[in-house]
Amino acid sequence: AAATVAKVDYTVEYLTHLENFAEHRFPNDRYDDQHEEAREYIMKAFEKHGLRTQVQKFNTSVNTDIIGINPEDKIVEGQNIIAIAEATSNKPEAVIVVGADYDTNGVDNPLFNNGAGVAVLLETVRLFMYNVRWSQAFRQNFTTVFVAFDLNTREHEGSAGKPGSYHFVNEWLWTFLNRSKVNFGGAYIIDSVMNVNQDVRSQIADSKFQQEVGYFLL
Predict the structure, then answer these.
(1) Pick from 20, 27, 16, 15: which is nearest to 150 by CA?
(2) Residue 28: which of 77, 57, 64, 60 has the closest Cα?
(3) What local confidence, expressed as pLDDT, does residue 3 receive?
């Protein structure tokens, strides 16, 4: 009998994701509900595709008055949402991180900052899991950690606290790597994907990057 050829799915379906990230997600009374809804949506998307999912809670200082009339820094709880796809084999530098910030700064367009990045992250999860686990078109050599970061305080006006990505790296990832940088293969941070650089050749990935992406899945 002829061997069955695995079907590779390249279809990108991001519009539904964008619809769920079209509003601000910020830790104040006005936007707190949308913030929580975004968390739940991301969690369900990770779990739907069979990923081992967990929440990393942390506290940080955020200026909750986004327009600056009554600036007041408050300690708020953030929640990084982490999903792990374990590799079937391990190689040196065996852990790859793919991440995006899911909160907004309450001012900029919530799709630019950063609903589009989260939509791409979730589609990456869907296509990755389909092509690696379900169709088995590719073999997964690296444990891949998908993470949606909360509270990017570096983009919040007047916020002095550490962002969610800082807490992820220092309080979660370093432990996951058994405190050895040898186990870390790199990170793809999918932010600002709607901000296009129009300079000549700026949108062309160099050969080394293409080779690394290919090696990541082979």
Answers:
(1) 27
(2) 64
(3) 41
